[in-house]
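Risk mitigation, structural track. In case the binding assays with phenylalanine fail to produce interpretable data, a predicted complex structure has been prepared as a fallback.
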Amino acid sequence: MNLDQLNQRITEIQAEVAAALTDINNVDAVRSLETSVLGKKGSLGSLITGVKDYPPDQRGQVGKSVNRAKTLIKASLDERLTQIQSDQVTAANALAGDFDPTLPGQPRPLGSVHPVTAVQWEVERLFERLGFTVEAGPEMETEHNNFEALNIPASHPARDMHDTFWLDNGKVLRTHTSPVQHRSMLKFGAPLRVIVPGRCFRYETLDASHENTFHQVEGLLIDRDISLGNLIALAKTLLTEVMNRDVELRVRPGYFPFVEPGIEIDMNCAICEGSGCPTCKHSGWIEILPAGMVHPKVLEAGNIDTDKYTGFAFGLGLTRLAMMKYGIKDIRVLNSGDLRPITSPTRIGGPIVWSRRKTPA
Ligand code: PHE
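Fallback model:
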């Protein structure tokens, strides 16, 4: 093929490619066209391989022509490829309506604190302001700390009030946070202001208001001249602050071997506002704060000088308080993995606003 024939052939190939491209609508077809033209045995590819067969003085000219053609053809193939791909995205978008696959993913909330934890933090902050220390104790407790040190000897009928999980090692899963009263007295002595939030366990049949695993906050204040009046005033401050409303209290006698006298502090039901509902068993009142003056035997067991000091203790039902605060009607949701009933608090560190999540249709 002389130079003129070659250029003629190149022009033909370019025209063929241009014609073929107008009919091609998919990526694979573009790729196979590329092979049939630019591949080693392709229409232009074979001309490129043949450059070496030309006399040396013509090779430069021939090489230039075929390479220029190669560059132009490659560019037109690439352009068609880009066009096909962008047509595909447009078609997919049209199918999916407004869906834009190039938008960044929506950030999802990573989770939030448990309602009981939220109330616990609030209670802790309040008591820290009042000069209390926040203590913790083990969930696996000795029988001595859970019972004897609290004036509940083995023969005591009050043991029947505690449906205890006994462990093979002779210890118990603490039935209340009160054992930490004893631990704190031994650790710090008097005067003493301490609260103990923590998990407690009782062998109970589950229903809407009973769980085998629940939270309490023990409170203990030991000082000179402490009276029940101080305790009731503190209860009022505590419940009013946590519930964010003016809480009404009712004080009744209550029996606990580790306090004397013992009382039950009830607050008016947040769910029915006192008019009576299933949650408050139609009484309008919720038992929330069993309490009393620390029994001298408990002070003595804790090496506290009973001539100098008196004190009060309470066992706030933290789980119940969280249920009241957030209007949770069934205690069982708190230990389940069901995240539906309430969504994240909008804010931790002030009044917490919870919103009901809409049940999906
Ligand atoms: N520990 C008691 C209970 O769990 C509650 C309580 C604590 C009562 C402190 C009085 C004083 O039932």
